[in-house]
């Protein structure tokens, strides 16, 4: 029995045969080739690209069959890379100039991209570094004549059914085919938590563990437990028995969570789901979500080489509504800028992009794009109840101007024959200090508020949440953040403006009692967390949560607040349920 540890990306437990997805030898056997072999090496590259394209196209179709045609965009960037002249010419140039082997040529290209991708002229490649690396891996896989059977036919192998796969990394195209063939979990050496692979695993509730060196022999029985961050190969009888008991207990809690009703008088609590792609909308109905509280419309746009038109944007968002059962949906307009920039966007270099042209600022600076985007959103009113939400609002005039464009979009759609209402609810994200501190100025302009705690926290604390050096500062448990969140809740109540929380804090079950005590009753959360959040909220009464907030506001550090919340949760939950939420907290 051997246990390896890693970083949990997608929560869950699984038992199955451990399958090594592709066991390619990444060592370069030869650097140079003879001039006479250049033509053969180029042909090997072209043939590998052809096989790679077949895999990617089949993956895109499988994804479309699972989630809808518009979801092909997850795979299509890699197909476009294979067709990209910069990609092809660079590798061919390296093969010819050495002359080098294909393996060494791709390594040189990869090193070039890693060292200079931020300044490379091809904007598409600059924004697609991880996609490029995935494509290189797929091409190399198909360049080895002895591994061609680890291609499309291998994905159809019955051995994959019920298995846990291991690989250095898994491209979205590979994951799509693996999911279609019944894998129950995945373990990798390196997978980004923000990658498409991570998003798909979370959305489809497939356990994913990363940061794990290659486990011992393949085809061994393995237990994957991402709650604990472990993969155990060849478990002994005692380990298997513990796994079965723990899995049964967790499934019991999950079933109870899904079916749980609120036990106390706070029946006005509403739970919504945050959604980026159609896969995340699948479980909303099962988990009894009241609707989609945050549909991130920019996700598809950021994958595009040119601005998607009205029809393309409408189709993408409509596919999500269809998977969700056409429930009430709040769509956030493009939250672009800062670290979210697509190739087609006319973005000048900014010294501090996090404080630059982003969110509603970008939209108002590009009125033609904004109008097309608003028309695509409003047209969905034919399918479901729709609300629109503006990101990164700082000043009232931004809402006034956006509403003017919204009225224009409605008029144009009605003139074109769409059956849309004369008005659509328009709200704002409260995520800048200017908006939060001056929230009273927006009461007569916005139909609702939604607190974006992620950006709000980093702006209040003047610390980048992605910077490890100051990451501890950027905590929503910090006293200044608590004070401002309380002010927003109080002001919204006094002005009778509906308010919700859609940031990561709403998905943190240890933070929820604080929000509840402040007076928040509407939460938009990661879909997978809805069942446990429902159970936690059902165990909280207003008096106790209010007292918790009073204590928290007297804390002098985030650490004190965290300990206070941990103690509170231990008091209101049973010992077994507290264990469940504690281990799940890491995911």
UniProtKB/TrEMBL annotation:
EC number of this enzyme: 2.7.3.9
Source organism per UniProt: Desulfurispira natronophila
Active site annotation, chain numbering: 196 (tele-phosphohistidine intermediate), 502 (proton donor)
Cofactor(s) of this protein: Mg(2+)
Subcellular location: Cytoplasm
Protein name (Swiss-Prot/TrEMBL): Phosphoenolpyruvate-protein phosphotransferase
Residues the entry annotates as binding phosphoenolpyruvate: 296, 332, 454-455, 465
Ranges where the Phosphotransferase system enzyme I N-terminal domain occurs: 6-128
